[in-house]
Amino acid sequence: MAGSRNFNTRRLHSLLGVIPVGLFLIEHLVVNYFATKGAASFDNAADFMGNLPFRYLLEAFVIFIPLYFHAIYGLYITFTAKNNASRYGYFRNWMFLLQRVTGVITLIYVSWHVWETRIAAAFGAEVNYQMMADILSSPFMVAFYLIGVLSAVFHFSNGLWSFFVSWGLTVSPRSQRVSTYVTMGVFVALAIVSVRTIFAFI
Amino acid sequence: MSAKTIKFIITRQDSPETAPYQEEFELSYRPNMNVISALMEIRRNPVNAKGEATTPITWEMNCLEEVCGACSMVINGKPRQSCTALVDKLEQPIRLEPMKTFPVVRDLAVDRSRMFDALKRVKAWIPIDGTYDLGPGPRMPETKRQWAYELSKCMTCGVCLEACPNVNSKSDFIGPAPLSQVRLFNAHPTGAMNKEERLNAIMTDGGLASCGNSQNCVQSCPKGIPLTTSIAALNRDTTFQAFKNFFGSDRV
């Protein structure tokens, strides 16, 4: 299939954003929600996740390789667009712009978050409730985490909408409108889960 | 000059290489003017608002009833046809600019060749020429014909490309118009015989996958063509085509 590299890469980019990266995001938010049930409960869950068999394989193939492929190719997509939401202020055009803005914020946030937790863990730090409570003891970091997590959740939810369009699942205008409501419902639900989790550490 | 006047601010450019500049014009008001009749008025008496003699403005026009697409330009910030841009319905001063997504030839005239090249690239026709009479083709149901008629209204005017954030100098995206034509010709009972050729053509670089779903095209199309529905439908068709290309298929 000479010449369809762009087509295949774009489709792969769309797929990986949902499977596995989106699924991992939901799993991560759900496991973190244990924090609302107390420090011991969170430590127990973090310990379980951290000691899963095949941990490095899971991390590589479910998280890091698809995540950074999606992120780096996403940057290329972002910078080949010439945004015009100020001239064409339609709802979908704003979502198009927001998808790109939240994508870039998410990449910055996630890279910092990986550095602060997973890479710190590789150098011997222990990932537990206390680690997060220490990080979130500064108001700046609380704001950074809120912006980062909400960006990630928005990027996933709105990305789900365009995933349905890109693979030809939602074709008619009505199906795309319904899909907008459903994915924005997903955004609100995940936003509640993630904000409650962040405040559980404060 | 009568008391009531209309004011134009026009972005002009003397040649493809020179820098654009703005020139203002003031015309006496007449009822029922459109942008083209105002441009004709300036052509008759090419004097700008300062009273200096200037060159007449270059623009393209042909049908004057919004079916040819030639007179598209950016009017008060939005791309549209100047023939149906009625002066009475426009905010003053009226700002005219060329559609800069395309190479500017002179003033408001742009070169839309890339759109015609894209139509060739996606094979937007039905190949029936041969050495003998093939006889009548399969019939098209009337309901489908009515549906297809809407897609056939595309006049290659360039408004959807101008509105699209992914059609720009950094990207090789062919834009919504030629994609929707693929759907039109693939839906035709005879055209469907070459469906795969067209799908494979839009699966190349700069094709369907470069769409970012901003959906400005469907909001901007002067003919109300359901461009984003065409794109989503083609997304579905190319999903199947990609699997067929990779794994093969027993369906002919």
Automatic annotation (TrEMBL), chain A:
UniProt entry keywords in alphabetical sequence: Heme, Iron, Membrane, Metal-binding, Transmembrane, Transmembrane helix
Transmembrane annotation, as ranges: 12-34, 54-76, 97-115, 135-157, 178-199
Subcellular location: Membrane
Matches recorded under InterPro entries: Cytochrome_b-558 (IPR011138), SQR/QFR_C/D (IPR034804), Succ_DH_cyt_b558_Firmicute (IPR016002), SuccDH_FuR_B_TM-su (IPR000701)
Name of protein: Succinate dehydrogenase cytochrome b558 subunit
Xref: Pfam families: Sdh_cyt (PF01127)
Keyword Lipid biosynthesis: no
Gene3D superfamilies: Fumarate reductase/succinate dehydrogenase, transmembrane subunit (1.20.1300.10)
Main location: membrane
Signal sequence, start to end: none
Automatic annotation (TrEMBL), chain B:
Keyword ATP-binding: no
Cofactor(s) needed: [3Fe-4S] cluster; [2Fe-2S] cluster; [4Fe-4S] cluster
Similarity field: Belongs to the succinate dehydrogenase/fumarate reductase iron-sulfur protein family.
Gene3D superfamilies: 3.10.20.30, Alpha-helical ferredoxin
PROSITE patterns per the UniProt record, alphabetical: 4FE4S_FER_1, 4FE4S_FER_2
Entries under SUPFAM superfamilies matching the protein: 2Fe-2S ferredoxin-like, alpha-helical ferredoxin
Record carries keyword Cell inner membrane: no
Pfam families: Fer2_3 (PF13085), Fer4_8 (PF13183)
Protein name, per record: succinate dehydrogenase
Organism of derivation: Fictibacillus terranigra
Enzyme class: oxidoreductase
